[in-house]
């Protein structure tokens, strides 16, 4: 009798790859809406160009690999990579920067390794790291958030202005400012209380706009947990580890302080990383125990790099480092074999 040549997994269920990807994109909407409200339409411009270019690069790679283009484009994995990269980039980034990032993510980080399910690194974060190292000026130029006109920035980029800004057309006057994480990292004289009073970008717990954006991604992550797209192990362990590190090294707010736990939880890309990056099933640890270790180590690395590294936000670097370590974590956190008291490794 001939055996069927099919690959695992063999189980079938209602949660297909395409449906999971569409749910992930849907869950990013609250955070995207917050970014749009406080920073203008630049993030939507990023996502538009990134989505178009990601689908084009994916189709090109599939064409050269003689794979069915429609079948693989319908799984929406390229769109998820585009959306995550578009969110991570500064609003209204130049289109050439987006093209370079999406091309690297799809062609090098995904298709070069064999396509979805074979990539060892998260494509969006790998592309972000490449862009940050190669083009630091463009990657650290963020628009000033809207705060009701207190900072004099009541005119945000509209949809047309954002597209013009990304294309380099016209003379769009966009006000730029450093991010709260960068301001805190460069601070060497003012206490946190003084810094909060002197710097208009700071909100109640973190930066204006950043608090709401992180709250939006937290809401989206909770929705994905409710839909059982992923388990709680990796995101919760990351957030707890980051909070513990921030609490341990928080000195009450001196000029050398690294910031409070709430500041780190609601600054930068913390919630985006916890619920949309760390939970990537391809590049993270597999077992529940492994996911706890994986997420906790990312949380520790995020604080270490933010406080003593060269980059103010550290989600991408931390995820990339732990993508390296995921196979090792899986090796030492293998679940017990069914029917045995100890795993094969423990019994040796």
From TrEMBL:
<feature type="transmembrane region" description="Helical">
    <location>
        <begin position="71"/>
        <end position="89"/>
    </location>
</feature>
<feature type="transmembrane region" description="Helical">
    <location>
        <begin position="262"/>
        <end position="279"/>
    </location>
</feature>
<keyword id="KW-0285">Flavoprotein</keyword>
<dbReference type="GO" id="GO:0005886">
    <property type="term" value="C:plasma membrane"/>
</dbReference>
<protein>
    <recommendedName>
        <fullName>Ion-translocating oxidoreductase complex subunit D</fullName>
        <ecNumber>7.-.-.-</ecNumber>
    </recommendedName>
</protein>
<feature type="transmembrane region" description="Helical">
    <location>
        <begin position="205"/>
        <end position="225"/>
    </location>
</feature>
<comment type="subunit">
    <text>The complex is composed of six subunits: RnfA, RnfB, RnfC, RnfD, RnfE and RnfG.</text>
</comment>
<keyword id="KW-0997">Cell inner membrane</keyword>
<keyword id="KW-0813">Transport</keyword>
<keyword id="KW-0288">FMN</keyword>
<keyword id="KW-0812">Transmembrane</keyword>
<feature type="modified residue" description="FMN phosphoryl threonine">
    <location>
        <position position="179"/>
    </location>
</feature>
<comment type="similarity">
    <text>Belongs to the NqrB/RnfD family.</text>
</comment>
<feature type="transmembrane region" description="Helical">
    <location>
        <begin position="291"/>
        <end position="308"/>
    </location>
</feature>
<feature type="transmembrane region" description="Helical">
    <location>
        <begin position="232"/>
        <end position="250"/>
    </location>
</feature>
<feature type="transmembrane region" description="Helical">
    <location>
        <begin position="314"/>
        <end position="333"/>
    </location>
</feature>
<comment type="function">
    <text>Part of a membrane-bound complex that couples electron transfer with translocation of ions across the membrane.</text>
</comment>
<dbReference type="InterPro" id="IPR004338">
    <property type="entry name" value="NqrB/RnfD"/>
</dbReference>
<feature type="transmembrane region" description="Helical">
    <location>
        <begin position="125"/>
        <end position="143"/>
    </location>
</feature>
<keyword id="KW-0597">Phosphoprotein</keyword>
<keyword id="KW-1133">Transmembrane helix</keyword>
<dbReference type="GO" id="GO:0055085">
    <property type="term" value="P:transmembrane transport"/>
</dbReference>
<keyword id="KW-0249">Electron transport</keyword>
<keyword id="KW-1003">Cell membrane</keyword>
<keyword id="KW-1278">Translocase</keyword>
<dbReference type="Pfam" id="PF03116">
    <property type="entry name" value="NQR2_RnfD_RnfE"/>
</dbReference>
<dbReference type="GO" id="GO:0022900">
    <property type="term" value="P:electron transport chain"/>
</dbReference>
<dbReference type="InterPro" id="IPR011303">
    <property type="entry name" value="RnfD_bac"/>
</dbReference>
<keyword id="KW-0472">Membrane</keyword>
<feature type="transmembrane region" description="Helical">
    <location>
        <begin position="20"/>
        <end position="41"/>
    </location>
</feature>
């Amino acid at each position: 009798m001939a055996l069927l040549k099919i690959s695992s997994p063999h189980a079938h269920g209602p949660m297909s790859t395409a449906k999971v990807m569409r749910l992930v994109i849907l869950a990013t909407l609250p955070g995207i809406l917050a970014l749009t409200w406080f920073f203008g339409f630049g993030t939507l411009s990023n996502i538009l160009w990134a989505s178009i270019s990601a689908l084009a690069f994916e189709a090109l790679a599939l064409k050269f690999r003689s794979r069915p283009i429609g079948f693989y484009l319908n799984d929406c994995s390229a769109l998820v990579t585009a959306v995550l990269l578009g969110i991570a980039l500064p609003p209204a980034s130049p289109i050439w920067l987006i093209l370079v990032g999406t091309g690297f993510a799809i062609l090098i980080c995904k298709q070069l390794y064999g396509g979805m399910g074979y990539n060892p690194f998260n494509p969006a974060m790998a592309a972000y790291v490449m862009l940050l190292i190669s083009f630091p000026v463009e990657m650290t130029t963020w628009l000033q958030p809207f705060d009701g006109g207190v900072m004099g920035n009541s005119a945000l980029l509209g949809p047309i202005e954002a597209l013009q800004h990304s294309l380099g057309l016209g003379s769009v006057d966009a006000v730029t400012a450093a991010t709260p994480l960068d301001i805190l990292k460069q601070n060497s004289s003012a206490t946190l209380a003084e810094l909060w009073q002197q710097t208009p970008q700071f909100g109640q717990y973190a930066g204006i706009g950043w608090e709401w954006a992180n709250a939006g991604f937290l809401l989206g992550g909770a929705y994905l947990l409710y839909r059982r797209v992923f388990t709680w192990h990796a995101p919760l362990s990351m957030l707890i580890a980051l909070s513990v590190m921030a609490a341990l090294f928080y000195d009450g707010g001196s000029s050398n302080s690294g910031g409070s736990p709430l500041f780190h939880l609601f600054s930068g890309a913390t919630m985006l990383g916890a619920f949309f990056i760390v939970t990537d099933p391809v590049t993270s640890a597999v077992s529940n125990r492994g996911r706890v270790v994986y997420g906790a180590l990312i949380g520790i690395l995020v604080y270490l790099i933010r406080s003593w590294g060269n980059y103010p936000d550290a989600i991408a670097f931390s995820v990339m480092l732990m993508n390296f370590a995921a196979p090792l974590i899986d090796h030492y956190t293998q679940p017990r074999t069914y029917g045995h008291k100890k795993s094969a490794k423990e019994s040796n």
